[in-house]
Design a protein that fits this description.
The protein is an alpha+beta fold and 664 residues long.
Length: 664
């Protein structure tokens, strides 16, 4: 009986073992196919497919008149499918020769485990043709977009730049990167059992929104030209210029030195393109800050423009610290204190205000805080709380020391005075248009921080500074101007004291005084040789303001200046000798040879006489006509042989003048 039961037990044990084994297999299958199924499906898919991101076309950035400042153009990029390449070393060697990329780097890119990889982004047409001629297996091309700035370095800091992936990194490109960049597309790459790759577009890239800015290209051209001239003559380490519409806060033109070409930003030192100095770098404003102190005291009713203040013969002792004037002034009116930039007089006015009231007006006028301009990386400047002031701080701050500001903050302040007391938020973009045609318009926004009466009183004082004070070099021909010079010593990092040799020269002003159209700030950092604001910065203001007002057809508000322009005597009474090969436009020639009205001996208010440009080079004629506010155009090259209007013709600023040149 026992022998009969033994096989039976063995069978039961075997069945139990098999049951346990089956349960284990089932559990493992359940774990793989149910619990971890998604993970393994994903891993399998990764070996059979890949996703390539496609950069979208960025929207255009345009000047206020619609001309394009930044656009995206189609370019080729070369890629590889490493698993399709038979001879990696030979392919890497050939690509290295054609692209300039080291072979060692290309060998890493051509890892057979990779489905798809970029070799070089945004290549030239010549490079593409050379690679195509090489007939390399597993190498292909994709169309991408590259940002293009047609005017090269014009408004470079304002526009900013983008990286290789079309991501905005500074300026408007960075600030508005989200809407301007658009949305990425995706291409799904599938690999079959034979290792062949197929593409399937999953998501179509969406074009970005376009921006219309407040920038005026004609004003920007003038600013850039005068910036370069100032950099050459002053040999300064840096210069910032801002031109603003004081009635809205719109930035009409702005430039900085050194500058860069955003098409090739990496070729410039990082310091040239990383930040916009007009709003990201700070300096002690010096005497331009005196308008803050005097405006605050006028607003509080503590002084009147004609009140006399004894200036202690040019020296004041403030809690043991002696502060001097550049001249030993005796008794001056408040108006004369501003006009002559008296430190002692300004400090005495500040002492009437006291620490807390002066600080409150500094805050009210926008210092120590961001202007909220629609550009990235703006800094606040530095205005310490009164609890951190020393007993002599009020004397320093009143005359623009112990505070730091940005050029944009000073531009906002002088615009506030020009427009009657409203502090507008500076802005650059006035319209955003998405690809569907929907438009968002940005309107000016401002807050009254000064009564019209105070603003008018300060305006009169600032005009006196230009006509009879420290800023005579900023007087405009034909227009009333107002402004304030500034000359500040820089802190020497080594000694922590004011440097005797390093200065910042500045000027802030507006014109015409009767109806302000532009506010301009010029800041020159470490000029060599002359360093006073009146010598270095004020003349730059003058040159820019005169050209801008004329080219914008702003009528002069000083009648005696209107007829000062006279025609250059004509070189000959004969008609120009025809140049072989020159075939002038019939309309231009006929109009130019028509005799002007006889007996034209007087000019109407605001008119100018057209000079004689015949015989001048194209550059000379274009530059000189623009300085008069004319709008030139030319046909051909060489020297001017015909002009329309003729020399001596009376015209108004903004009139178009045509030049016909000797070579066509």
């Amino acid at each position: 009986m026992k022998k009969e039961k033994l096989p039976e037990k063995r069978i039961r044990v075997l069945v139990a073992i098999m049951a346990l084994w089956g349960i284990g297999i089932g559990a493992r299958l359940y774990f793989l196919q149910v619990v971890r199924s998604e993970n393994y499906i994903e891993k399998a898919a990764q070996h059979q497919q890949d996703i390539v991101k496609i950069t979208p076309r960025r929207g255009d950035i345009m000047a206020r008149d619609g001309t394009v400042l930044a656009r995206s153009i189609e370019v080729d990029s070369v890629f590889a499918r490493p698993h399709e390449i038979k001879n990696r070393a030979a392919t890497a060697k050939t690509l290295s020769r054609l692209t300039g990329i080291p072979s060692s780097e290309l060998m890493k890119k051509l890892d057979p485990a990779k489905t798809w990889v970029w070799i070089k982004r945004k290549i030239s047409k010549d490079q593409r043709q050379a690679i195509e001629r090489a007939r390399l297996r597993g190498i292909g091309f994709k169309t991408e977009f590259r940002r293009y700035y047609p005017d090269r370095d014009m408004a470079a800091h304002l526009l900013g730049y983008v990286d290789v992936d079309e991501e905005g990194k500074s300026g408007l490109e960075g600030k508005y990167n989200g809407p301007v960049r658009g949305k990425q597309g995706e291409i799904l790459l599938l690999v079959d059992a034979h290792g062949k790759t197929y593409e399937r577009e999953q998501t179509v890239p969406q074009i970005g929104a376009s921006l219309t800015t407040t920038l005026d290209k004609s004003i920007q051209f003038i600013v850039e030209r005068e910036l370069r001239a100032a950099a050459e003559t002053s040999r300064a380490s840096a210069i910032s210029i801002i031109v603003m519409d004081p009635m809205s806060g719109a930035i009409l033109g702005t430039a900085n030195w050194p500058t860069f070409n955003p098409n090739e930003y990496a070729k410039s030192p990082e310091a040239a393109y990383a930040l916009n100095p007009s709003l990201a770098l700070t300096y002690e404003p010096g005497s331009t800050f005196k308008m803050v102190t005097i405006a605050a005291a006028l607003e509080e009713g503590l002084i009147t423009p004609d009140e006399k203040i004894f200036c202690d013969n040019g020296s004041i002792l403030l809690y043991g610290r002696r502060i001097r004037d550049h001249k030993p002034y005796g008794t001056l009116s408040v108006r004369e204190i501003m006009q002559n930039s008296s430190n002692v007089g300004t400090i005495k006015i500040a002492l009437r205000l006291g620490d807390d009231r002066l600080k409150s007006y500094i805050d009210r006028y926008g210092f120590g805080q961001k202007t909220l301009v629609d550009l990235p990386a703006e800094v606040r400047g530095m205005v310490r709380d009164t609890s951190e002031w020393t007993k002599t701080s009020i004397g320093s701050i009143a005359i623009g020391q112990e505070v730091s500001v940005t050029p944009l903050q000073i531009a906002t302040m002088v615009s506030t005075i020009a427009n009657g007391g409203i502090r507008y938020r500076p802005y650059v973009v006035q319209k955003i248009q998405d690809p569907n045609g929907e438009t968002t318009e940005i309107k000016p926004s401002g807050t009254r921080v000064m009564t019209p009466t105070t603003a008018e009183q300060v305006r009169v004082m600032l005009e006196d500074v230009v006509t009879d004070g420290t800023a005579k070099g900023s007087q405009l021909e034909g227009y009333r101007a107002a402004g304030k010079t500034g000359t500040a010593q820089k802190i020497d990092p080594a000694t922590k004291r004011y440097s005797p040799s390093k200065h910042i020269a500045s000027f802030a002003g507006f014109a015409p005084v009767s109806d302000p159209k532009i506010a301009i700030v010029v800041v020159v950092d470490e000029p060599k040789g002359q360093y006073y604001g009146a010598e270095v910065a004020a003349p730059v203001f003058k040159r820019i303001a005169e050209q801008v007002l004329r080219i914008k057809s702003v009528l002069p508000d000083v009648p005696r200046y209107a007829p000062h322009y006279t025609a250059t005597p004509e070189r000959t009474k004969e008609k120009p000798t025809p140049i072989p090969g020159a075939t002038p436009d019939a309309k231009v020639l006929d109009a130019a040879l028509t005799s002007p009205p006889k007996g034209q001996t007087s000019l109407e208010f605001g008119e100018i006489l057209v000079p004689n440009y015949i015989g001048q080079s194209l550059r000379q004629a274009m530059d000189e006509s623009r300085k008069l506010g004319l709008k030139p155009s030319a046909q051909g090259s060489g020297q001017v042989v015909v002009q329309n209007p003729l020399p001596g013709a009376p015209v108004r600023p903004g009139t178009r003048i045509q030049f016909l040149l000797s070579l066509r």
